[in-house]
Structure prediction request, 428 residues.
Amino acid sequence: MGDLRAGTTTTAPRPRSLEERLDRLAMVALRVGVGFEHDDRLRLVGPLEAADLMRRITVQAYELGAAYVDVRYVDPHLSLARARYAREETLDGFPTEQADLAFTVAERGDASITVSGKDPDALASADPARVGRMNRAANRALRATSDLAMASHMPWTIVPFAVPAWARKVFPDASAAEAQARLWDAIFAATRVDADDPVVAWGAHATQLDALAERLSREGFEALHVRGPGTDLRVGLARGHVWEGASSVSGVDGRRFVANIPTEEVFTAPHAEHVEGTVRASRPLSYGGQVVDGFSFTFEGGTVVDYAAERGASVLRALLETDTGARRLGEMALVPHSSPIGAAGRLFYDTLFDENAASHLALGRGYPTTLRDGAARSSDERSHAGLNDSLVHVDFMIGSAEMDVVGLLADGDAVDVMRRGEWVLGGL
Ligand code: ZN
Ligand code: ZN
Prediction:
């Protein structure tokens, strides 16, 4: 709330420079994202083009007392080179030494920051079937590491960077410089970097989302019925599911961390075998550098039995053929249409942004932490409760201003949860 007292002359705060805001984003990644502590080791992965932010994170990590910062740059042009030119019979391979290193540092509990930001069409000129094989090989090799992440073993987070090709996709009518500046403004707003004190602002935001998650967990819904344009879907929920908000708790040392910067969602575990009906995506999906748009799925007994896409059907096919779990749901997330990112009214062609603008589902593996005591349960116990398993976890957006969600209780009662994309659950 601004100061509106009549007659008071207020000086507008000096606009912060891009450098100051990048420093603040680095600070949010460390202090909010992974809850960085003295003597922590940090693994930092991100695109070459994000070197500016990655250097700032490194400097601040050492200022906070880091034991070591291990930085790895990635370059989508190199993935494209492999997708287009590598010999066919080599595409199912993955360097095991890279997978071993990732697992070693994750198991040790090193903090992990991934800087995301990529051209949504980076691999558009490659054959989706070849890209699918590369993705499958990587997912298989990194499976044990992502198991640790999804069970919140080590503190980890993802933060965005406005790489130029992504900015051009989001703001196609602006000049290159203008597009990047506008994407940065959207990022800094969504990541609360522009708040007076970003860490305090994140504390309040996380408390609010965590309380909402607890409120939904107490309802103990058996299923959610989702309706919207092209969507009439009954999503059964896993037995003993809990909803999660912004905060996760590391299994290594119990510290709190926020795995996605930004985040606006509360999410839980669908039952892998109890999903019936049809769902239409409300936003395009950029998966592995290829865009899928205008797509829908039909579920029977929890599994996708039919699908269609106006663009990128072969990308979807490669994804669905990963394994049987890739055709089942592993996440149901609710985000009000009026969320700050949704209210921006933009398509971001980036899951970290679009999934926080709209309610979404994920095909593939579920989070053990969305079951009560899930991280402590065996994988047999988890799947018995209905938690899905797969090599992949791919979110796709279904929320809109026309989406209604009804919670179904075991005794047959129905409770309005969202109407026209907004919360209507009593007591919220
Ligand atoms: Zn989600
Ligand atoms: Zn997800």
The chain has two domains: 18-190, 220-243+267-423. The chain has 13 helices and 19 strands.
